[in-house]
Amino acid sequence: MKNLFTSILGIFLFNSVALCNDSAVFYFNKGVEEKTSKRFLHASKNFETAIKFDSNYLQAYLENGYSNLEMRKLRLALNDFTKVFELDNTNQAAIKELASLYFGFKQYQKAVEFTNKCTSCNDKEKIIGISYYQDENFGLAEKVLAPYVQKNPTDAEASFALARTYMELENEKKAIYFYELALKERNTNASWYSELGLIYYNNNQYKKAIDCFTNAIKNGITQSNDFKQNYAFAYIYANDATNAEPILQDLIIRKAGNKELLRDIAEAYYSAKQYDNSLGYCQRLIEMDARDGKALYQAGLCFQKKGQTDRGQKMCDAAIDMDPALGKMRKQTSLPVGL
Predict the structure, then answer these.
(1) pTM value surpassing 0.85
(2) Interatomic CA distance for residues 75 and 72, integer angstroms
(3) Residue 24 is part of which domain span?
(4) What CATH number is associated with residue 29?
(5) Number of domains forming the structure of the chain
(6) Residue 137 domain-assigned?
(7) C-alpha closest to that of 319 among 306, 302, 307, 305
């Protein structure tokens, strides 16, 4: 009697498993039909039902992952492909999608891990190199990206990442080269132009900086006060006050009453040997505060440079009387920026 009961139970369990398997296959096939017809929500529901009948249905997880990708449900897709990888850690389809998803989610160590496992990933070196850059491992980023960009010089994104890598490695010469290479392929990227412009500016290549800042504006850069100031000062140092002044006047309106801005402009004009323009801004400062010793001292230096030595010296002496701390500047030819 016991053996009969065991046999009946075994037959029941076998039939139940077979029924579940049949049901899983049925809903999986329906899901494939819906997915082929681009009805991804209905497809996903069918794949999920198939998985309820068979929790190890690898292909159902995989197809559900693709459906979720189509619907931009990236977290759900990540879960599906992770399950495929757990069931089969050699499945290249899942590994490829996990590499891409982790990269998109900015989980760069995971992106490197799965990209290294991937045999079918396009631009494998690019993904790994940019991941190293984003993870601030600049030494490894340079080792991977440099040969990749050499083979793929039209890949603007990789060239840009390499340019920034070289900036972090304090190699501005190479950084400039790869910024230019990136912009050659993507000459509408405003922020890249702005970054390169600032590098040129800091390297005293003012005309090139102006070109970059101008292109950044043409391509829609948000013109912050700092951007405007760098743009205007690049014109000053390039001896082009005509183009500098409209930007400066707008900036002065935006930063109304900011003495340090006026002082920086006066110093910039002085450094560029445009003494009359420097005097104009010193005058503005003195009109705002007749006891502004720094402005008076700067004005005195301008007059000395213009050949009016006695007048300039008297102004510097008067400035020191107002602000004795300026006495230490007597032997210098200019005020330090920001004084």
Answers:
(1) no
(2) 9
(3) 1-88
(4) 1.25.40.10
(5) 1
(6) no
(7) 302
